[in-house]
Specification:
- This protein is of the alpha+beta class and 364 residues long.
- It has 2 domains: 230 residues, Rossmann fold, CATH 3.40.50; 118 residues, Nucleic acid-binding proteins (OB fold (Dihydrolipoamide Acetyltransferase, E2P), Beta Barrel), CATH 2.40.50.
- Helix content is 25%, strand content 35%.
- The protein has 10 helices and 20 strands.
- The strands form 4 sheets. Strands 6-7-8-3-9-10 form a 6-stranded mixed sheet, with helices on both faces. It has a 5-stranded antiparallel sheet with strand order 13-12-11-14-20. A 5-stranded antiparallel sheet has the order 15-19-16-17-18, with no helix packed on it.
- The protein is elongated and about 80 Å long.
- 35% of the residues are buried.
- The structure holds adenosine-5'-triphosphate and magnesium ion.
- The site of adenosine-5'-triphosphate has 12 residues, from β2 and α1.
């Protein structure tokens, strides 16, 4: 039984429809991440679940019960916003217990909850400090602690890490993952950062233009993207897309483009047979091109590229290359010497070939 379910959930502001009837079922204790570009409707969805926005159409169910008519506080949810605004005159313990004190929870119980949550979040030594005496990451943890002490069944996060610098984001991401394992609650987390989504989620929901593009485990979406948008959104550096046409060569179905001919693996070739499209987009992730220094790959398993720019990023280098008229990015171990303008051969990892209908952009 899913804990939270959205059924044909729609939102309209005046004449503008911003959510087009989305369906989503989250399992118990699942960490669900809503991810997508700015304006795609992530916060609106989260705020509707929280009860901070009205529902235009469809319904939200919690444990099978419709809740869209309920006030936020009747929904048993706790929300952590991007702008977490702690009370500056209260110490960490009092910030964390604020809601409990309002509810007149007995002091002994408040103390116990604050102690437990502080332990989980690594805040025990900081309970008597004021927010001004904390680092950004510690403040962020206090904001989460404030939500966690409320013991709700579900936690909603709207870009909680976006105020932090890159290093702290990485640390907090790891802490969040650890925390969610410990507390075993439902988590719904909004971000536009695909790395956060990939690392934290049990279920990723990719949104675009008020529609769900695809949902599933990070691995499912990475390996089998349903369309070109999802394929290009997840993964860094992003997937390469090359225009081509399906053509048979010596009984083998190939994608033929400007200066390349790539044979399709049998399963993919079979799917193409039942597909009407001849104009396609070939998708290859930068990590699915393997250097073929000896030039042993067959002509239909090979890409010959001219290196235009090399970006050294530590263990890996990113090569930006020309493939005739199109650009292609390749990831390579950085101990391989590469000169600008060099022509290099790459073999394609056979599992790494993705194909999309050029018109509909749906995966074949
Ligand atoms: N109060 C409002 N009135 C009219 N339009 C709104 C209102 N709030 C949001 N929108 C529009 O709804 C769409 C979705 O907004 P939403 O805040 O859900 O996006 P988001 O995915 O959270 O984006 P971001 O990553 O920038 O936070 C946007 O096009 C936005 O302009
Ligand atoms: Mg938002």
């Amino acid at each position: 039984m899913p804990r939270i379910e959205l059924s044909k959930l729609g939102k309209r502001y005046g004449d503008v429809e911003v959510l087009h009837g989305i369906d989503l079922a989250m399992e118990e204790h699942e960490f669900t991440v809503l991810v997508g570009p700015s304006g795609c409707g992530k916060s609106t969805t989260l705020r509707m679940i929280a009860g901070l926005e009205t529902v235009t159409s469809g319904e939200i169910y919690i444990d099978g019960n419709p809740v869209s008519h309920l006030e936020p506080k009747a929904r048993d949810l706790a929300m952590v916003f991007q702008d977490y605004a702690l009370y500056p005159h209260m110490d960490v313990a009092r910030n964390m217990s604020f809601a409990l004190r309002l509810q007149k929870v007995p002091q002994a119980e408040i103390d116990r909850k604050v102690r437990d949550v502080a332990e989980v979040l690594g805040l025990t030594a900081l309970l008597n400090r004021k927010p001004a005496e904390l680092s950004g990451g510690q403040r962020q943890r206090v904001a989460m602690g404030r939500a966690l002490t409320r013991d709700s069944s579900t936690f909603l996060f709207d870009e909680p890490l976006s105020n932090l610098d890159a290093k702290l984001r990485g640390q907090m991401r790891a802490e969040l993952a650890l925390m969610s394992q410990r507390v075993q609650k439902n988590m719904i987390y909004v971000t536009h950062d695909q790395i956060e989504a990939m690392t934290l989620a049990d279920r990723i929901v990719v949104m675009h233009g008020g529609h769900i593009q695809q949902q599933g485990s990070p691995e499912e979406l990475f390996k089998r993207p349903a369309n070109k948008f999802v394929a290009g959104f997840l993964g860094m550096p992003p997937m390469n897309f090359l225009a081509g046409e399906l053509q048979a060569r010596d009984d083998t179905l190939c994608v033929v483009g400007d200066s390349f001919t790539v044979a399709l693996p049998p399963a993919l070739a079979e799917r193409c047979q039942s597909h009407s499209a001849r104009e396609v987009v070939l998708g290859i992730r930068p990590s699915d091109l393997v250097l073929d220094a000896e030039n042993t790959a067959a002509a239909t398993e090979r890409f010959t590229l001219d290196v235009v720019v090399t970006e050294y990023i530590g263990a890996q280098s990113v090569l930006i290359c020309d493939c005739a008229s199109q650009r292609m990015v390749v990831e390579l171990k950085s101990d391989v010497p590469v000169g600008l303008g060099q022509r290099m051969n790459f073999r394609i990892n056979p599992d790494g070939i993705h194909l999309f209908d050029a018109q509909s952009e749906v995966a074949i």
